[in-house]
Write a structure and sequence with these properties.
alpha/beta, five-stranded mixed sheet, four-stranded mixed sheet, 13 strands, globular, disordered N terminus, binds acetyl coenzyme *A
């Protein structure tokens, strides 16, 4: 609902509740040993991953997003009627259109409002959070549902050991509400299209569509290059965001990084001078769930009681594009 003048006195947004959904089926490193030439030891030492969840054949992204969103609405004590903005970060939409936001809106019976998905690979959820925060600050939305969801198993080449061990499926969601104090403090979003070729698919709806049925959608990646750029870019972005707020590196209570690789995460934690126990890790259980990875990790750490109201949280991500983003919040 449009409120051109903004909501008097409420010029920020904050997280009112979080939720997650992980499909039932679990694929372990031992399962992968039976599928490709790899070992549990290689996967653990190079990535930190032990298992990941896989969507059932009939489950598309919106089927994962909806239960995650329901859990977030319940945690926020918010009825679907109150939501007036739906944003979904995803690399694996159900369909070309309607967008996943509309499918989620329909399933949850959210009244007519803006609903769209954000296409920024693994960074999509943080991009979406930044947009939703801006809409609430401007008074153009009052309560937003922001979901990160992926069924990356559908765009994985299961014969390529260098990528198939990395990805998992899942969804994380938050409800944002207006607040007098932040809440979401600020975001940095970035992208550099010069790196399109180090992390991409070969085909899509309008590029090489003839290859779609021939593994054209599968993730192709120059892992080593992505690794180095990820560490450099996320480190720099985190520093920029701290500087914007005049905060020291030690001023962060929790780091929630994109869960792409344990070694990348440790490098960022070290840069922030955070002890390991202040870095939320789900990579061992979820693998890389793309745009879902940060909201999934956030929900895990809130529900198990680690993250508490008033604590300061740094979220940082990178993904195909290349895109990157960081968000700072007081929970
Ligand atoms: N099992 C066993 N050996 C393997 C496997 C495997 N699953 N995969 C690769 N290897 C081999 C390689 O063939 C290579 O062998 P060689 O030396 O004989 O040529 C060797 O292991 C080392 O390969 P590297 O690629 O150099 O291994 P590295 O230490 O870089 O780890 C990894 C690879 C885990 C992919 C790492 O580079 C990484 O995490 N990169 C970042 C990935 C990432 O974050 N991607 C984001 C994607 S998100 C998105 O947008 C969907």
């Amino acid at each position: 609902m449009e409120q051109p003048g903004g909501i008097a006195g409420l010029r920020h947004s904050r997280i009112a509740g979080t939720g997650r959904y992980l499909p039932e089926r679990v694929l372990t490193n031992q399962d992968l040993e039976r599928m490709v030439d790899t070992t549990d030891e290689w996967i653990r030492t190079r990535t930190g991953m032990e298992r990941r969840h896989m969507a059932a054949d009939e489950q598309a992204s919106s089927d994962l997003a909806v239960p995650a969103a329901r859990a977030a609405l319940e945690a926020a004590n918010c009825s679907p009627d109150e939501i007036d903005l739906v944003v979904v970060g995803t690399t694996t939409p159900d369909l070309v259109f309607p967008n996943v936001g509309c499918l989620v809106q329909k399933a949850l019976e959210i009244p007519p409002c803006a609903a769209f998905s954000c296409e920024a690979a693994c960074t999509g959820w943080l991009y979406g959070m930044s947009v939703a925060d801006g809409m609430i600050r401007l008074g153009r939305a009052s309560k937003a549902l922001v979901v990160g969801v992926e069924v990356l198993s559908r765009i994985t080449d299961w014969s390529d050991r260098s990528t198939c061990v990395l990805f998992g499926d899942g969804a994380g969601a938050v409800v944002l509400e207006p607040a007098e104090e932040p809440g979401l403090m600020s975001f940095i979003l970035g992208a550099d299209g010069n790196y399109v070729d180090i992390l991409r698919s070969r085909a899509g709806v309008s590029r090489n569509p003839a290859e779609l049925g021939d593994g054209g959608l599968a993730v192709r990646m120059k892992g080593n290059e992505v690794f180095k750029i990820a560490v450099r870019t996320m480190g720099r972005t985190v520093d920029q965001l701290l500087e914007r707020h005049g905060l020291d590196r030690g001023a962060i209570d929790w780091l929630i990084p994109h869960q792409a690789n344990l070694r990348i995460i440790q490098a960022i934690g070290k840069r922030l001078r955070l002890p390991d126990e202040r870095v939320v890790l789900t990579v061992q259980d979820h693998g890389n769930t793309g745009a879902a990875s940060i909201p999934l990790a956030l929900d895990v750490a809130i529900r198990d009681g680690r993250i508490r109201r008033g604590q300061r949280i740094m979220m940082v991500s990178f993904g195909g594009g290349l895109t990157w983003a960081a968000g700072l919040m007081q929970f």
